[in-house]
Amino acid sequence: MVSGFREGVVCPQGLIAHGRGEAFDYLLGERTNPFAVKAIEASACALLTAERPVISVNGNVAALCAASVVQLSSLCGARLEANLFYRTQERMKAVKKALFAAGASEVLGGEEDEAIIPELFSERRRVSREGIYSADVVLVPLEDGDRTTALKRMGKKVIAIDLNPLSVTARAADITIVDNVVRAVPALCAAVKRLRLKERQALERILAEYDNERVLGEALEAISSRLNRLARGELHG
Amino acid sequence: MVSGFREGVVCPQGLIAHGRGEAFDYLLGERTNPFAVKAIEASACALLTAERPVISVNGNVAALCAASVVQLSSLCGARLEANLFYRTQERMKAVKKALFAAGASEVLGGEEDEAIIPELFSERRRVSREGIYSADVVLVPLEDGDRTTALKRMGKKVIAIDLNPLSVTARAADITIVDNVVRAVPALCAAVKRLRLKERQALERILAEYDNERVLGEALEAISSRLNRLARGELHG
Asked: Which residue has the higher pLDDT, A49 or A111?
């Protein structure tokens, strides 16, 4: 059960999305697979070499891993921005409150100067001018496809965390971490800690060698082979 | 989005379960596949040849397909019983209200004489003595594995509708319809209409020939092959 439901952080649609994720996580063996490790390493390089990295936080992210997104934000100097599909003042407040409670010193979104992302029709298109709007790299854990595509069209490098390797977000992002946020964000913190000691050139080389399509293909193969083994009774549940 | 959330029919856990189902439905191509058609036909035979068939209704079933479970109940003479994992008086009332609003003339559960199903520890173990407790065939759309297993141990024939062919429920049930309830229950109504004109012997023959393990294997193969085709880009989304 997602905590944060009673505090108004997670909306009903967020719970359904969480369930969809659970099903894919089960098919992935509920672990950080090798293809996710590759994507996490590339993501750390993208965040460390960014000029204006931003982490976009929605209700589920705030409920599931507030502490680790706050840690990631301070480790790589990325700003946090609350951005909700089903936006109400109360939910914006609840999400920001969860991030401040987890140690955030600043959370953008909702109060300062806002800009509109073209081609998006939900309230999510309202973003902070100094945050997502002017970011070069945006980490969108748990995001939907329309938004990822709109951010791409604005020329941003998008890092997504998505348990469904076939989703529009997974396919549209530059780097897709096919893993559960509760494992992926702490792993991303660890990768940033390790890689920030390296020179910029080394980070850029890792990024240049990264192939998202191949990573998504490996995720699909992993699910397919796990299904076959489950069907043959070689694994338990 | 599941309707019935605001009326207190669906609980937060029900929304997460709905999301898990959505993910499997997507992998199944969001249609009633041939393996589901076989299971639906066998289920119709089991309901038509039962002495005391009962349809167990939880919050998600009431929200998603109240009208068709009521229709199925009258077509095959099965009694409806509200049975909730997260049982409160308010939720029992809301589920029953949804069924009465959909045309039910009787809904068991919560008020009359109750019995306890052995080996179940949630409030769901409280069942109607004249309903599930004394049934020979129980249809449990959207149920969890513990309950299906407990019903099996009580000697009941269990028909499950479950989008995850690997779930404990799917494996424990006598007949597993791997399909979305919103398609499966109307299809089951149609099968009952068609088959109730046949002689009992013909129905028993269909039941004897039905092989649930083979059906579950076919469902897994379908998911696996769809994943591979999606990965190769032969299908859209």
From this structure: A49
